[in-house]
Amino acid sequence: MAKLSQIIAIRTTAKTRVHAAISELYKKIQKPALFNGFSKEYRPKDEDGEKLPSESQRVQALSGHVLLELDRCCTELMQITARQDWTNASAKADVIVEDRKLLEGVPVSYLIFLEKQLTDIHTFIKAMPVLDPAEDWSKDEKSGLNRTREIYTHRTKKIQKPIVLYPHSEHHPAQTQMVTEDVVAGHWVAVKLSGAISATDKEKMLGRVDTLLYAVKSARESANACNEVPSPKVGAAVFGFIFGPQVNSD
Q: How far apart are CA 110 and CA 88, in angstroms?
């Protein structure tokens, strides 16, 4: 069993490393382009029609992966801090959410820390890019990406064809003229792709953070009024509640 001084030393190092990692994640979600991509395939109208190369842009970031990395980083710091605070605490209270104990016997010092963490998590989730509400998105189970329906646009090409100005007669030969006409050569099939989160899921998570913040503040007030145990799996409890079933590793 580690001494409190050892836990404090470990936490100091971990806090610097975790904050650096979360800062990098925050920079990533400030670049919505990383979460978006597309695929574009040309299909000629005729078998012998002109062949054009496909176009695509790969989705470089997935909201689920980013949130899971946020979970991992925050959980590490939450757990180390729990070891320190549980060892040094005497004032405790339960965090009760929706009439159930989410966390039990939480030291007041840790409630203060958790309140700050939840405020930062709220800021992080609020900055997450969301799916364009103007589009109709569906989940592609194979890739884990969100995608729109296929949009077809036609591509034309110019051809020349003769037209008869004057028909042939016994006195004059027929007169013709070449004219240019646009005809459909093929179709583009475009699909928008995104690794962003839906606005609905985002609002649900933000609502859970707000609910949990209120519960933590209430617990802190109770603990301050009250006169060394193992720490619980705080990160799993917190993120299990915030993320719910909507966000996964896909």
A: 10
Between 90 and 129, name the one with better pLDDT: 129
Neighbouring residues of 178: CB distance < 8 A, sequence distance ≥ 6: 160, 161, 162
Can you tell me the distance from the alpha carbon of 195 to that of 32, in angstroms, rounded to the nearest whole number?
A: 9
**In degrees, to the nearest 5, what angle opens at C-alpha 90 toward C-alphas 94 and 223?**
40
Q: Which of 48, 208, 190, 52 is nearest to 125 (CA)?
A: 208
Distances (CA, A) of 130 to 8, 61, 64, 127, 240: 38, 13, 12, 9, 21
Nearest residue to 244 via CA among 217, 193, 204 = 204
- C-beta of residue 220 within 8 angstroms of C-beta of residue 84: no
Q: Which residues in 166-197 are b (16+ Cβ under 10 Å) and which e?
A: eeeeeeeeeeeeeeeeeeebbebeebbbbbbb
Report the pLDDT value the prediction gives residue 249, as an integer from 0 to 100: 41
Each domain of the chain, given as residue ranges in start order, spans: 4-30+62-130+196-243
Distance, CA of 237 to CA of 235 (rounded, Å): 5
145-175 confidence digits (pLDDT tens): 999 998 898 888 888 888 877 777 777 787 8
